[in-house]
Specification:
With about 375 residues, the chain is mainly alpha-helical. It has a domain of about 200 residues: Rossmann fold. Helix content is about 45%, strand content about 5%. It has 17 helices and seven strands. It has a three-stranded parallel sheet. A two-stranded parallel sheet has the order 4-5. Strands 6-7 form a two-stranded antiparallel ribbon. The longest helix is centred in the middle third of the chain and has 17 residues. The termini are close together.
Length: about 375
């Protein structure tokens, strides 16, 4: 049986999620503590930090802002410009960029910033997508590594010490207390929580013919290189109230475009619009841990009082964990083609990574699936 947070709808199968004696998860407790935050004081702290790194001589950029073109990175850029900073925006190209994702990157540039986009070798990246999917059940492994490594490499290359990240995901979604309470993103945080999932890039050398020189975008600078520039980072969400819906409204007011309908596996139409592979990533999370994107979003809105817990449960049951026949207009077959995987091979991988303890099975022990390939969890709430 799955045990769920009594306040939101997150199951205890989420890695690093902790339920207290009242059955409330650490992510809900973390949000609860925000009511005690003096946000005016936090903003003053932010201004003090930014003043330290602002280049009064105009000889270099003031900070690096990692951007995907999504609502949150658009919001980050808007805030930095409002505070008078001159940021260098850095994009690690997504693995299977959707047209709407490209349009939003171009919009971000039109806000009036310098922008650098790193596009890793697509043939190497396809191998890494396949390795990530087959070895750890995460097609997005190279993307989740690159969004951290490439901005750090840019900070070293361009001698810009300060990197301004968005939210601390360990805080917003639940994670180890030491990570959630840390407002500075350092090398240790990157290596532990930056998407490596137990795989080290060095371990991939020789796998499918991969060479070290092909993996440069996925490796961090050395400690000496980081120290020479003094690279550090901060989470903007520590200093300013962080809310995805509010970020979206601000982003849309500055040209960000949302999708024409609710995104597959989601409650909303304004998140995860850049990568066709995201549907597969979210589906495997559901298979392994019993929750997907809709659960993540429902929990955020429940904590903010926009959804009742019951409404969240009903939405999750209806939308979460649907088999990813398509995503953002691309079919599963087209998404798998660069990875040289067939749909039959994909289904076998799905079954391989499914946590069979949390899904219904028939008398023979086989997973019960409907005609669309969807499965049903053994329970959707505490019973």
């Amino acid at each position: 049986m799955l045990t769920y947070c009594t306040r939101c709808v997150m199951p205890d199968t989420k890695p690093d999620l902790q339920l207290d004696d009242d059955g409330v998860c650490n992510a809900c407790r973390s949000y609860e503590q925000r009511t005690d935050v003096d946000w005016d004081a936090r903003r003053d702290e932010l201004l003090t930090v930014l003043t330290k790194y602002r280049r009064s001589d105009g000889g270099n950029w003031d900070c690096i802002v990692p951007v995907s073109g999504g609502k949150d990175s658009t919001y980050q850029v808007v805030r930095m410009l409002q505070l008078g900073l001159n940021p260098l925006c850095v994009t690690s190209s997504t693995c299977d960029l959707a047209p709407l994702g490209r349009a939003n990157i171009e919009n971000l540039k039109r806000l009036g910033v310098d922008h650098v986009e790193m596009s890793p070798n697509p043939l190497v990246r396809a191998k890494l997508n396949r390795i990530g999917l087959t070895q750890v059940g995460d097609i997005s492994w190279p993307e989740h590594v690159g969004i951290f490594t490439i901005p750090v490499r840019a900070a070293v290359q361009f001698s810009v010490p300060l990197i301004v990240w968005g939210e601390n995901s360990q805080n917003e979604y639940g994670g180890p207390a030491a990570a959630a309470g840390n407002n500075v993103l350092n090398r240790r945080w990157l290596e532990e929580f930056g998407g490596l999932l137990g795989m080290r890039v060095s371990d991939l050398i020789g796998h499918e013919g991969l060479e070290a020189r092909q993996l440069i975008p996925y490796t961090y600078p050395t400690d000496d290189e980081l120290a020479a520039v003094g690279v550090t980072g901060l989470f903007l969400g520590h200093y300013l109230p962080w809310d995805g819906l509010a970020n979206n409204l601000i982003a849309q007011a500055n040209g960000f475009r949302s999708y024409g309908s609710v995104v597959e596996g989601s409650l909303v139409n304004y998140e995860n619009l850049d990568n066709h592979q995201t549907g597969i990533h979210d589906y495997f999370k559901f298979l392994k841990f019993g929750f997907g994107r809709a659960t993540d979003q429902a929990c955020l809105h429940i904590r903010r009082g926009r959804l009742t817990r019951q409404d969240g449960l009903e939405a999750v049951r209806r939308l979460d964990g649907r088999f990813p026949h398509s995503y953002l207009g691309n079919s599963l077959e087209d998404i798998l083609e660069p990875l040289e995987l067939t749909t039959d091979e994909f289904v076998r991988l799905c079954d391989q990574f499914t946590n069979k303890k949390i899904f219904k099975r028939d008398v023979s022990g086989a997973l019960v699936k409907d005609r669309n390939g969807n499965m049903t969890k053994i329970n959707y709430d505490n019973e």
